[in-house]
Amino acid sequence: MQRRHRLRRSADFESLRRSGQQFRLPLAILIVRANGDRFSRFGFLVSKRLGNAAERNRVKRRLREVIRPQIGLIQPGWDILIIARNAMTKAEYSEVDDAMSQLLRRADLLQALDS
């Protein structure tokens, strides 16, 4: 994921958690807020309660890989935080992909495709 598409500062994570709009599913929580930029930025949060470092990194890699092909479809100008929940560690890739698509649609972040 390109550097400009990443949330990196802890202050950005904290302000997004405080003032963003939340959408929940059993696998993940999506928190969004407009950022006023020409591109959207993403952050991924995986708690230590989900497992050891290897398990947490696997969950983060899977989330990044699910989001990466959808970046072009997501409306620009949003900060997006994805928080993994316990069920994420046992979920298949297709389940994670479906959950992220559903959360993005629910948040109305996907651009309409011109047919």
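the 2nd protein, sequnce then structure:
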Amino acid sequence: MAVCCAEGHLYLVTDVEEYFHVMTQLLAEQTALASLPTPEPGTPAHDLDYLTNFERKFRKEGRPIYRAAYVAE
């Protein structure tokens, strides 16, 4: 069982498409979470405009990054 305070945020970010789909299906079943819009960010402004080193590497390789965000109600 996971605990999240009211209006707490949960972010899902991965480069593995299958894992992303499994996790978003599981999170959709959680009635205490509401999905938030998560537009794909634009092209990074510079080499340090990434959330993690993995994201920087994968984006440079042209690999997609899958994102979802949720808020606890």
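The chain has a mean pLDDT of 83. Residues 29 and 48 are 36 Å apart (CA to CA).
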